Amino acid sequence: MLRLRNVKCFYGRIQAISGVSLSVRQGEIIALIGANGAGKSTLLQTISGLLSTWEGEIEFGKSSLAGLKPPEIVQRGISLVPEGRMLFPPMSVLDNLKLGAYLRYRGRERNQVEKDLEEIQDLFPVLRERSRQAAGTLSGGEQQMLAMGRALMARPKLLLLDEPSMGLAPFMVQLIVETLQKLKESGMTLLLVEQNARAALQIADRGYVLENGRIVLDGPAQELLADEEVKRAYLGKDYREFTDGRM
Amino acid sequence: MQEILQYFFSGITAGAVYAVIALGFTLLFNATGLINFAQGEFVMIGALMLITLWKVLALPLIAAFALSVGLVAVIGILMERMAMRTVRKPHPIVMVIITIGISIFLRGVGMLSWGKDAHSVDPFTQHAPLEVYGATLLPQSLWILGIVLLIVAGLQFFFKKTLAGKAMEACAISKKAAWLLGIPSEKMVLAAFAMSAAMGGVAGVLIAPVTMSSYDMGTMLGLKGFCAAMLGGLGSVLGAVIGGLLLGVIEAFGVGLVASGLKDVLAFLILIFILCVRPSGLLGAKTIQRF
Is residue B262 situated within a structural domain? Predict the structure, then answer.
């Protein structure tokens, strides 16, 4: 569905991604994990068109995404839930959701959009309760749900999520994870960037580990969860093993 | 008493025009964060176009009104496409200086097209002035107030009820977020330029019958509008209207009760005072709801 071949991204002269290849198949959840500054967000911004200075090949379906701007990429069926959520805080929850379907309103799909609006509010009941409230007054977890709901309003084929669990209480993280699983069951394809590697790998089908702009490891999520190297670097599981006998 | 009422009438008439100019500043500022110092020149072109189309070419008033405003909107669009979008590094100060350059250019075009003489035109309708407690209220004042009311209602409807209005507000809040949802931010900026220029055009059309119009009238009117927008709180539609009316009334009372030389002095004293004491304007930034 999505295929990256030898993608290199640049911020001015600085190279943030040096030759990444990865693929996402229909109906999969793919986890992209890695430390701060590994280039995970850069990669998502590149796919969604925000960062235009890249080389290599990005194919979605059968066509290349080269030179497309974010609105055109949304039109083709890729939506990004950005890091930090990027809501419109003074506008109501309902308006935020409606703007997510901007292109579809323009495409005369009004009836279908109204139906989806109900569906999204069924998926996130809290958004229905607070539909008239300003988005900025929601709690962090509710805002994350709104950001996801807003992106889903565009009816994407592929949903990119940048750190959906960032700064959330553990039970909220659990709720988000459950929602992602529901989305997968309904046939959605997800590319998930997470620092919370454990949560990400538990629901993912496959994972990629990014380090300094390169993919250093990839494979089925269960294998990555069990991998000693991943455990040491990203899961922090075996902390005791490192300190045992030294203290 | 009668005099006070008279000053008040002339104050709100001028103030309503300042309010429309201030709306032009506010619309553009909201969508792009830019201050367009060519706003006054849009007023000048609107006024002189109306005179040409209505008085000289004898078109019906409604057609002349619409054509003048439409032409000014087109100038706004051309300005965005040719002078603003082409800037490679859109640093705010660069953009502001470009708008000043454009204002000088438009003034030159105005002088070449309409000459250096001042022009005048009749009021929209030839009713007898109304007598209200001994003070006269000109029919043109009623036209101005009515049209300003319509514009404010129209803008409120646009921003509160239509998807395009909400999308424009979304662009103003975060261009990047709006882009990610598929909202074409370039088109929104272009629309904001057109709307803001059209506001200038409307102000020009409204003011043409109550003042002498010439190629150099824009600078002062633009600065007054800016002052009104700052007074009300830049970025708020309601603030622009309140700021404009207040400025007009203060000016009228200053001229009537103190000295006629004070007219322009007062506006700029207020501007300096606002910038020093309360840069967020009367409806301070926290209480302002954008649009």
Answer: no
Distance from CA of B208 to the nearest CA of A (A): 39
The overall average pLDDT reported for chain B is 89
Check if A102 contacts B (Cβ < 8 Å).
yes
Chain A interface mutation, best of B158, B171, B180, B188, highest count of A Cβ atoms under 10 Å? B180
Entry pTM: 0.82
Residue B248 in any domain: the answer is: no
Q: What is the ipTM of this complex?
A: 0.85
Give the Cα separation of B252 and B12 in Å (integer). 9
Q: Which of B170, B181, B289 sits opposite A154 (nearest CB)?
A: B181
CA A235 to chain B, closest CA, distance in angstroms equals 31
User: Token digits for B183?
Assistant: 């909202």
Ordered by where they begin, the domains of chain A are 21-52+68-77+161-247 (3.40.50.300), 86-155 (no CATH)
Structural domain contains residue B242 = no
Distance CA A123, CA A134 (A): 20
Among the partner residues A71, A86, A90, nearest to B183 by beta-carbon distance: A71
* Total domains in the fold of chain B: 1
Mutate to test the interface with A, among B89, B173, B181, B237 (most CBs of A within 10 A): B181
Distances, alpha carbon B180 to alpha carbons A19, A116, B110, in Å: 25, 19, 42
pLDDT tens column, B194-236: 999 999 999 999 999 988 999 999 999 999 999 999 888 887 8
Residue with token string 């997470």: A194
User: Where in the sequence is the domain holding B123, given as residue range(s)?
Assistant: 2-219
User: Which residue among A69, A88, A98 sits closest to B177, beta carbon to beta carbon?
Assistant: A88
* Residue B237 belongs to a domain: no
- Find the CB nearest A102 among B173, B181, B290: B181
What was the pLDDT predicted at B127? 80
Distances (CA, A) of B128 to A163, B134, B152: 69, 14, 27
Comparing CA positions, the residue from B196, B205, B199 lying closest to residue B59 is B205
